[in-house]
Write a structure and sequence with these properties.
Layout: H1 3-10, H2 18-37, H3 41-44, H4 49-58, H5 60-83
Length: 85
């Protein structure tokens, strides 16, 4: 049972809500850029957090891609933080 805690520590996605992921990605990149990163309609046509949430909850492969992109963004931010110290 003690292993679970470590797993969560190593998983930056743990406890992160999908809505939070979408809001952070949209704030950083904007819908248009997100639509070029992940080729899904909800990013490209009349995008909103609400419509994308609905789609991603029903579409595991798309959700996985969006989460991947989020992790990539976190990695880049970490690198930038390290180099600015």
């Amino acid at each position: 049972m003690g292993m679970n805690n470590n797993e969560h520590k190593n998983n930056p996605m743990h406890g992160v809500k999908l809505v939070q992921i979408l809001e952070e990605l949209e704030a950083k990149y904007g819908w248009e850029t997100l639509g070029t990163f992940v080729n899904i309609r909800c990013f490209q046509y009349d995008p909103s957090v609400k419509s994308c949430l609905k789609f991603l909850r029903k579409t595991p492969w798309a959700r996985a891609k969006v989460e991947e992109l989020y992790l990539l963004m976190l990695k880049v931010q970490e690198k930038n933080n390290e180099s600015s110290h």
